[in-house]
Amino acid sequence: MTYFNAEENSLSGEISDGIFNISVLEVLCIPVNKITGQLPANLCFQLPNLEVLLLAENELFGELPQSISNCSCLRKFEVANNYLGGIIPSNIGEMGLLEMLSMHGNNFRSGSSTLNLLTSLANCRNLSKLLLSRNPFNATLPNSVGNLSTLLEVFTCSDCGLHGPIPLESGNLTGMQQVYLAQNKLEGSIPPTFEKLQNLQLLSLYDNKISGFIPEFVCNFQSMVYIYLDENQIGGSIPTCVGNLTALRQLLLYGNKLESTIPSSLWQLRDILELDLSNNLLNGSITYIGNFKVAYLVDLSTNHFSGVIPRSIGDSKV
User: Which run of H or E residues covers position 101?
Assistant: First the structure.
């Protein structure tokens, strides 16, 4: 047997040791069940051909065994939403063919003041998805984050107790499309090196301690669809070029220290669905809102706007 898939059932109990002795096995998928127990210490000793191991959304506990690195052919490894914990083995980076690593929603720790896991993963040159959110790492992002694969498209590390600045080296990840670093304690400004992330479609940094300004280069992200910078300490003004982001669907900037007026170009975003600028220090008048044909939410509350509500609001579908 080379392929075994029992996804989305009501299977319970522990995984039989026998399945880890099938040396020709290439795909093992048992996610979304009620599987419990610990992963065996010899997990990959007898699985030299395993390429896909999906065990997410079960009730597994214990630590990830050091033997995981013996699965040298593994391309997809998913243990998200279990009760696994401890320190992720540093030799996980020896799985050089890894394309997706999904470990979010567990109790993994860093074991040091920096998230050294990212350093060990630099050897995984095919890695395109790295999903680590909702683990209590309580660490800083190392400069070595910039050594991750340039093929990396999705990086999630939200709600992980991260603190300190976002390293400048993160701008080396030029293939990045989605960055999730929300609900941490990250400080400092949005790195200027982010300008190199021209494929970015989603930037989620909400609920941190990010300060500084919204950089002008954000307007160059022609593929940007979602910007979540709410609940930070960002000041200054909204870039006047924001109207260049014609693909934008959600722009959430509430709960910051933004000042000045709303740039007129923002009202030209015809396809925006949600705009939330509430709880800032914005002022001036609300000029024209009639171009918002598909928006379902526009929140401008708790600012310092004056003047009248524009008649053009009747032309919108808000």
Answer: strand 100-102
